[in-house]
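Our consortium's second objective concerns turning raw sequence data into structural hypotheses that experimental partners can test. To show how far this objective has progressed, the report includes one record in full. It was chosen at random from the queue rather than selected for favorable results. The single chain below, 213 residues long, was entered without modification.
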Amino acid sequence: MSPTEDHRTNPRSPFQRSPSVPALVISLSLVVGAVLFGIYGPTVAGRLSHGGGLPLVDVLDAAARLRYRAIMDSLENRSEPDLVPEEAKGALRQLTGRLVTAPDLAGAGFHLMRVGPVSLPGSTYRSAVLVYRGRGAAEGRWVLLFVAADEGQYLAFDALGRPRPLAPEQTLEGELPGMESMALVWSDGAVLRLACFENPADAEAAREALGAP
């Protein structure tokens, strides 16, 4: 049989093989890694500032600590009624110096409980936190949204590990201390937003209402 006939009649020709399962797993891992790399960057780069900028990994670490304190403060005032998101606009403008709208997360099961000042690195005196508590099926869970004035000081990392200001329409994911806790980070060029969730399902449910790209 000639080589031509053999290739034509063999359904398992190497040119027709399907991708292997290990190859698909590796490909997916690279995609996820690229998202996380934008926050964490190289090991050394994540610990150092670059040209006066602040790596987002430092902001993420601070948010993880501030998150717990904000929840404790909210629990001390748990008897107070929930806020209407529109009512928070004035407080947010005063705290951040920016026009910031409080997202309405009621459709995802979370209601705005309080808005308060917070000292987020990179914008110590121009940042705030919005605390949302879960109702119904989300009872006992929390979503916290940190907002800060953004003047290009927050740095993400590109695929080559080079620090760059976080680009608008770019959303990065990071891990928080906790079982499945995670954060989404994005900016519209004027306001940095960092949303903290207790699990990926809550992040998925609230993402559109938060306005994350």
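The partners drew two points from this record. The longest strand covers residues 110-117. Confidence is low (pLDDT under 50) at residues 2-19, 21-34, 43-50. Both points have been shared with the crystallography group to help prioritize constructs.
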